[in-house]
User: Fold this.
Amino acid sequence: MNQASQVDVKNLSGFFLNKKANSLNLLMINEELEKLKYPIGQFHCPKEITKLHIRDWIQVLENLPTRLEKLVENLDDEQLNTPYRPGGWTIREVIHHVSDSHHHSYIRFKWAMTEDNPVIKAYNEQDWANLHDYTSSIKISQLHLRAVHAKLVQFIKGLKDSDLERTFIHPEGNRTVKLKENLGIYAWHSNHHYAHIESVMKKKDWI
Ligand code: NI
Assistant:
């Protein structure tokens, strides 16, 4: 092996070491981002959905409007315009999103109860978040969420066990979703976005 190739090998190993270090950093950044995006983890549906799950999930939906109002009641406009993570939605946008998203959920329950396994309408939540009303006051979305949840919870409480077995098809992935699973998804979604806001507020020392 001549001197030149020895140098090459040395440089090469240095290159790979740096590459390894970089990919490790990237992995850590990805993990950190995943934690910021999913502070309570992703939704995992229990294999068997029990009456206890149903009761707990309904409770989450029932409590969300008040919990969310209390969490942000002392925030000023600048604080509301703070992203929950770098590159993420602002607290204000998260609140508008939850209100729109749960509006869709309410309609999906109604569709599944009045049609036979209907294909529901998906929507592009990022495009919705880019609409002008997502920069407006959170008050209307808070009132809307309060009304939607009151109607949603009252409706779900009146469903029979067999009703919760009814299904709809989500066009993304053509997935069949039972209403009892959808209930779990939206209870998770409530806690998921609540945790986004709570985590940035803790980070900023606002709570
Ligand atoms: Ni969401």
